[in-house]
Specification:
2 helices, single chain
Length: 138
Amino acid sequence: MKLRLLFGIFLLISLTACSSSKQTDIADEVIFYGEGEHWNVKYFYNPELYDEKRVNWVEMELKDLELSQGDLHNIDIKFKGRDGLITGNVGDMITKIKGNVISFLVGTVNVETYKEDEYNIKIKFKDKQDVIRLQLLN
């Protein structure tokens, strides 16, 4: 009986220790950044913008080619976070293009966003594909 009680206490302490990892809230705008073979990507998370409009910005820079407005319809993305996945064709989105940098709005893919979060973006452009992990840029 004492062995079961000790095992139960040990299990409770272990579960409590494992579940107590602290997530750091975001007070100001932060950037999650990643580099791929063909693209550099930034996800700008601004808590005020998200609270007001439920969106934030993604900026993708193509490394080896100059982009044209027509190229946007040849770019498909999958943007994945802890709580969801956003997919789409960049040409169907509201975008800004300057040189080889594309900016567009996305909703968040996490219910709550923390500094420890990581995102993955898969970019298909013509015959090239990148899968990029985005982490907080310090």
